[in-house]
Amino acid sequence: MDLSDWLLTTRDRGNPATRLDSRRPDALAWAAGNDVRPLVHGSTYFRELLAGIRAQERGDLLLFTDWRGDPDERLAGAGTEIGRVLREAARRGVIVKGLVWRSHLDGFQFSATENRHLGKEVEAGGGEFLLDMRVRPGGSHHQKLVVLRHPGRPELDVAYVGGIDLCHGRNDDAAHGGDPQAIPFADAYGPRPAWHDVQLAVRGPAVGDLEAGFRERWEDPAPLTRSPLVRLRQRVHREDEHADRLPPQAPDPEPCGTQTVQVLRTYPNRLFQGYPFAPDGERSIARSYLKALSRARSLIYLEDQYLWSPQVVEHFARALAARPELRLVAVIPTVPEQDGPVTLPMNLVGRITALERLRRGGGDRVAVYGLENHAGTPVYVHAKVCVIDDVWASVGSDNVNLRSWTHDSELNCAVLDAAEDPREPRDPAGLGDGARRFARELRLELSREHLDAEAVQAPPPGAAAPEAPEAPDPLCDPVRAFELFASSAAALDAWYEGGRRGPRPPGRLRAYRPPELSRTTRAWSLPLYRLLVDPDGRPMGVRRRGAF
Q: I need a labelling partner for 494 at 20 to 30 A (CA). Which of 51, 116, 385, 425 fits?
């Protein structure tokens, strides 16, 4: 496999100001030799993160970025509140540095108050915590990253990147009973909303790339805010206004696995004063999707919080129209998180318009599902995962919408595994790119949970595929996987339509059927959606060309 067929070259990234693509001796725009594991569910991630932080010692480094952090969110029971865990680490001599978004809209119960409280916990232990408003108007810092470095013990170095914030509502597991520390949410999800999410644990040289990206933000000399009122409040609350110097970055960890990782970001074209590391913004997440979609031949598997924006979905629709054998499976929330009389239509209109475009491109080769737990309560899908042809996988903080691709800061990792899946040595995509172990196992792990399916074990790495396996996993075949999703959802839908008589069928998938919006509702909600919900952060010239 030629990695540049799937991954962005330095020129493709379109941001010569970043040091991500020039920091290694090979000057490649990606890092090979990593060990990457998906951590499905907040509880899985939180337990591992807790163990990693508690193992850190004096002089180790803990860096994190977040959209929202609640200091009392428990990672694994009483005494493991994230604020306390970070404070204790700083008191042990761990160098703790945090960058978390300061919301423009604290009065609307976004994240600024909670993040400020988390900052007090960190600073009480001697760490440093900055509330960062260096975004476009109405934008946010949406990146979710934790980096743990260990000078003298680099084999312990790890970075966590994905969709999971260190806040209330995220600590759920495969049973999807919800986080006991719930958040206000749409009524359909009940008092304890179930939450589906994914984070990556990355070990190897890519840890250095993720740390370098943190340092670019940390070293930005621009003021944390331009608002005179906020700056006055900073002084009243004695908040840090400037970042202290970080210790020099340690050498990258040694190669330890078979996965190549490319760090991808979104930064907007920040008004008045651009980012020094992205003067015109960066849209490498969008560009990475477009490159991978151009090679899609069999199956696009998507889990996304939103799946809206006609401008973004257009590229998926074109791929479907160009390849009659290509299918798309998407798993999304059944109900938006906000269900008010104004916010619900604003959230729905972009999705409905996007799904109409997808179906014009792919017809019945497009299948969209919601999730529920075994009690019949909807599960909120917050994961941001895309797997194409079981070769290319992307996991991170970005959603499939214009805001994530252009306007907010986002962080993703695209993963290509050098190890082929030995269960399928043939070439399903017709491109000389057989299924790769990481991408396939990620898709299968998520699919099995949604279908209540038992796993069929793959041979260990390096083993040859058996000539005649007794029970090949049907999910490995993209057409069969598409059919299994459809039949599982149809059986569960029929059980409900039949009055829930008899045992509940296995599976958690429901066919997604958006509510109808009248022409009048579309007419008033679409402009508000474009202005408030899904703004565009591209430079005007790029926007006029319709490019990313």
A: 385
Instruction: Name every residue whose Cβ is closer than 8 Å to that of residue 530 and which is 6 or more positions away in sequence.
Output: none
Distance CA 122, CA 234 (A): 16
pLDDT single digits (tens) 261-281: 999 999 999 988 899 999 999
Q: Percentage of the chain with pLDDT > 90? A: 78
Work out the angle at residue 212's Cα, subtended by the Cα atoms of residues 207 and 213, and round it to the nearest 5 degrees: 100
Tokens 């993720």 map to which residue? 210
Three-state SS for 32-74 is: EEEEEEEEECHHHHHHHHHHHHHCCCCCCEEEEEECCECCCCE
The phi, psi pair for 370, rounded to 5°, reads -100, 170
Please, which pLDDT band fits residue 1 given cuts at 50, 70 and 90? Answer: confident
Alpha-carbon span 375 to 363, nearest angstrom: 32
What tokens does 141 get? 């810092």
Residue whose structure tokens are 């084999």: 155
**Which residue type occupies 474?**
P
- Residue 528 Cα distances to 33, 348, 478, 542, angstroms: 46, 12, 38, 22
Pick from 382, 416, 384: nearest CA to 397: 384
User: 259 forms bridges with which residues in the sheet?
Assistant: 34, 417
pLDDT at 116 over 90: no
429 in helix, strand or coil?
A: coil
Closest listed residue to residue 513, CA positions, set 380, 368, 399, 382: 368
| Helix or strand (DSSP H, E) at 264 | strand 259-267
Q: What are phi and psi of 364, to 5 degrees?
A: -80, 5
Ramachandran sector of residue 380 (left: φ over 0; alpha: ψ -120 to 50; beta: rest): beta
pTM reported for the whole predicted model: 0.94
For residue 215, what are its two tokens? 């340092």
Q: Categorize the per-residue pLDDT at 320 as very low, low, confident or very high, splitting at 50, 70 and 90.
A: very high
